[in-house]
Structure formats: C-alpha cells, structure tokens
Amino acid sequence: MASTTTPAEKEKPWHAAYPPPVLSAAVIKREELLGWVNEGKVAGRDYVLVDLRRVDYEGGTISGSINLPAQSLYESIPSLYTLFLTAKVAKVIWYCGSSRGRGTRAAGWFADYIKSQNDSSMESLVLEGGVRGWAQAGEEYVKEMTGYEAEVWK
User: Fold this and answer.
1) Pairing state of beta strands 123-127 and 26-28?
2) What secondary structure letter does DSSP report for 22?
3) pTM here?
4) How many degrees, rounded to 5, is the angle at CA 122 between CA 14 and CA 77?
5) Which residues of 56-72 are buried (b: 16+ CB within 10 A; e: fewer)?
6) What would the pLDDT profile of 44-72 be if each residue is shown by its tens digit?
C-alpha cells in the first residue's frame, strides 16, 4: 500500500500537531530571576523552572530546573497545572536554548490553560534569552547552573 503522506507533511515541525498558543506569556528578565535566587527564593517551592530542551540538552541547566522536553509537553499541561496548583506554585518559568521557540510556545500554552481555569493565582512566564542568555551573562549566573560546561556556551 502506497503512503498518502506528502513530502511537505513529513517536514512539519513537531509543534504543528498542536494548536498555537492564544496568549503570549509575560517575559521574566534573567536579572529578576537571579534576584529571586539571591533573595533566597527556592525553585520548586517559590517558583518552578522548566527546561524544555531535548536533543540539545547540553552544557548545563539552571539550578533547580526540571527537564520536560517541549515535544511531549502539550498533553501533560493539565497534570502539570494540577501539580503546581496543589503545591501552591505562583510562577512557572519556561525556557529552552533561546526562549524564542519552545520557551515562548510552552509558556503560551500554559498561560492559555491557566486562563481556561479562571486562575489568577498562577502565572506562566518565559525566561528572556533562555539558558544560552543565562550561561553567557556572567559568573553570577554560571554559579547558579548545574552541570555547567563552558565549552558549550562559547
């Protein structure tokens, strides 16, 4: 039996299988997040950091992050929301390498879900510049990374 898939369909990006986000999540600057860390706020309690990288997960991650590859995220959003709500997490911060693709998309999807729940207690944010911006911003940022590998960020 011959395939009915056209070459253009084979080349669709992973996110084409899902609706685009309706909302654009607010951006959090890395300086603000570093300020939270320096104030003693704790990832996993005061906020959640989500690293969306999969095949490009290298060079380290921001300390306290959980790794949830963007390609498998969409179906998990209701469960993640319930977990974060139960834990009373007010801020969920999403990032990828640059936060210009997966980061903004995931943050938008999560913002859409928060709105659909009429929840004003939780906010979805995207980290400006992603992990690359964080790793290249200087020593005060690098010291807040786990598994940092300098050669990856050159």
Assistant:
1) parallel
2) S
3) 0.90
4) 30
5) ebebbbbebbeebbbee
6) 999 999 999 998 889 999 999 999 999 99
